[in-house]
Amino acid sequence: MLGGKGVSLVMGIVGRYILIELIKVFVVTLTLLTLMMMFVGVGQQAIKEGLGLTPVLRLVPYLLPNALRFAVPGTMLLTACCVYGRISSDNEIVAVKALGISPMVMIWPALFLATIASLFSVWLNDVAVSWGHEGARRVVIESIEEIAYGRLRTHKSFSSSRFSILVKDVEGDRLIRPEILVPAGEHSPQLSISAAEATLKSDTENNRLIISLIDSRIEAAGNEPGSFDHPGVMQHVISLDDSEEYRIAISPSYLSLSEIDTNMVMHQKIAKERRESFAAMTTFALMTGDLHKMHSDEWDNWVSKVDWSRSRINRVRTEPHRRWTNGFSCLFFVMLGIPLAIRQRNSDWVSTFFMAFMPVLLIFYPLLAYGVDRAKEGALPPIAVWGGNLVLFLIGLILLRRVMRY
């Protein structure tokens, strides 16, 4: 047995040694895994959007946080399995116990690193779905001319939320016999445009797309349908700015944590206005005896609006818990992986990793998905999202206690 100073010295050396080993494995594994995910993610985005080299390079910084947020938890688990599987197979845990030192000396560095990684992962989840998503979307919008021409040359069609085009052929930058459909906006009807020829030009300064038409015909649908022919050259402008509907309808998954409270207040105000309007319409229908109104399309539309607002509020409330749960999965993965790796006493980290990953796959992710879905529906409180982490914590705690004893 060692004296007090000797024990303290050994504890410090062992702790630093384990921490350094963990950091080395974590950094190398995270780098390789992130590069692989970035290669796949950027490639998929390029194929999906028809992007050229320049837009692809511009996408890289925006897609990096998204790749990292998926890579960090898995890397943390793999790191714990690799390091603790090796030191257990080399009987280093037994040696520490023989010196009268608690195995926690060898465990706390991983828990410390996992806590730091969890906080980093929470930040990554926030950045990836807000700054990263918005930045990638802006790159796509600003590259709309290149994307549209690329799709039209290969597929003779292009479609986006702003407009869609079918062409007979593409010669240089000339679209031959284009058929353009512009969906209805808040203050504009749906437009169907046909022309002998057309060209596309992005106006990035004003965030719009200019379509130059030759010998065109425009048909408007809606409450006031009509059509007119325009011989010669005419320009049609499509705004690429975000509409008010987009800002309201944007998924809470793409809001930063700092925007959650403001978005919640906005949707609570909208929900209150819709409930009051719906209640007033119901009262008026009952007072006048116009019960047929309760079976009209207008009635169904108001019911849908009220239900949508209720659902949106539940989703906004759930989102912060989902971000923190995903981020702190790093810590709970490690709490499970450490005792499993030590008990396995196997330097083959692959088998140890998959043994630890099975409870994550079969318990954590199903409970997380169930908690998120039920919380979004309002059937469970948002804190239910933490169910998967809680189960992993209890399993890890039981296994850690056994490691400490035996």
Description of the molecule:
By secondary structure, the chain is α+β, with helices and mostly antiparallel strands. It has three domains: 4-142 and 328-405, no CATH class; 163-239, no CATH class; 245-321. 67% of the residues lie in helices and 14% in strands. It contains eleven helices and eight strands. Strands 1, 2, 3, 4, 5, 6, 7 and 8 form an eight-stranded antiparallel β-sheet that branches. A hairpin with a 4-residue loop joins β1 and β2. α2 crosses α10 (349-377), α8 packs antiparallel against α10 and α10 (349-377) runs antiparallel to α11 (387-405). The longest helix has 46 residues, at 4-49. The two termini are 19 Å apart. The model has no long low-confidence stretch (mean pLDDT 84).
Features:
alpha+beta, 67% helix, 406 residues
Order of helices and strands: HHHHHEEEEEEEEHHHHHH
What is the helix fraction of residues, given as a range?
55-70%
How many distinct helices?
Answer: 11
Radius of gyration: 29 Å
Distance between the termini: 19 Å
- Domain count: the total is 3
Question: What's this model, at a glance?
Answer:
The protein is 67% helix and 14% strand.
